[in-house]
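Predict both folds.
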Amino acid sequence: MNDAICLLVNPTAGRGRGGRYAAPTARVLRDAGHPVRAVVGLDASDALRRAREAVAGGARALVAVGGDGLVSLALHALAGTSTPLGIVAAGTGDDFARALGLPLRAPAAAAERTAAALAAGTATPVDLGRVGDRWFGTVLAAGFDSRVNDRANRMNRPRGRLRYDLAILAELATLRPVPFRLRLDEGPWQELDATLVAVGNGTSYGGGLRIAPGARTDDGRFDITVVGACSRRTLLRVLPSVRHGGHVDHPLVTVVRAARVTLAAAVTTAYADGDPLGGLPLTARTVPGAVRVLGADG
């Protein structure tokens, strides 16, 4: 495994794109003179174990070929190490790749960016968020958006984006503000009623919903978007503007910045990078330069 580039592949990502993208990715990297080995887990925990073994075994780089779920596994294998990460985005969301200006659904272009960065010996330091021993690269969500995730995960069908659209409609029917307690860095506790609180290390979640449009992955701070208590009608008016980040101009929306945030609320599950973190309270902090990414803008 020493000095090889390891491809961490999710064959089922993006309805099979992960599997289809592995071959052109490997071809570009081999043509650039790099030995390549594939790492495919039986499930998420097995994939993470194999990725960590590859890094410990001296892999020159770990290249994730898949969506945000696979990238999240790669982040957990790489955070705090000197081994760089390459990303060949093949999922339905690809929000971490989007935040870093990497090619989307273009395996050859993404692999070429990775190969060029390896040849130049450059990798961009990227901040990550951390909650306990869990890392995240994009957004930690609590409130309406995390309840949508909860509901969608309980639904067996339909598949794809439509399932989330139906989950949104169902949650709108029971919309209610949540009493939050919020603490930024070493400041005082704040009490507020909110529809949702989103802690952005990256700019977007849900496949390009720019919930934290001003977030940067190199400033050591989160952009924390708070949508105040609002009616269904108001939320329906605000939601479409999240696609381009225009919601931050609405009077019910507040954006604050902090390196550490503690959230507390009753019966609220937090999600980060699309995966459940568990119930509140929790504390998230930024870790500057926690991972080095090949070919990222920066």
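Second protein follows, with its predicted structure tokens after the sequence.
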Amino acid sequence: MLEIKNLSVTYPNNVKALEDVTVSIPSGKLVGVIGPNGAGKSTLLKGALGMVNRSGSVAFEGEPIEKIQQRIAYVEQKGNLDMDFPITVLQCVLLGTFPKLGWFKRPGKQEKEISMDALKRVGMEEFANRQISELSGGQFQRVLLARTLAQDAVLIFLDEPFVGIDIKSEGIIMDQLFKLRDQGKTILIVHHDLTKVGKYFDGLILLNKRLVASGEVDEVMTHDNLAKVFGEGAFTDIGGN
């Protein structure tokens, strides 16, 4: 179980991005993090990982999250990544094998085989020697997922992976995420498309700087909860009742 207790994040100039969030997520679940712009969705992931100054505690399977960093995969928003960095697709995926290699060790034959297998699983093996700058948005997102597959993490955080990508890539990514979930991996995804949450997720975390609701999709996607964060028209727009 991923246990987040009393998580708060305050940015410079005393801007409160997240206030006193407490939520528990069972292992082996695929959970969406939803809310309006500025609700603290990305901050929840970064705060849980200790990437920003925070108060509160985060544990996974009873261990403080700081002690299991090598077992965690994090893919930030594509817009925050440098796609012009001179690195090939295969080299990018190989980075996922580094946490298990230890200090001063270089990836060898086994790591390359793992990385190529990961690329095959997302349909990108033919692009192994391409520069990442030559990829479309959807192709690059698939490569980032391949890097996560190569890492074989048990806890996976994805921040808006479907923004600006094609339908084919989104389908391939979700297919692999479902398989990871079925293998017992715990996955959190910051997501913005309310029409797909019932199809994609086992559970939801609804945020608006504070926790509004968490639990199974039907429990969270109520008129009252959505109205609190998106306004009265939101539930009608997604076909709710």
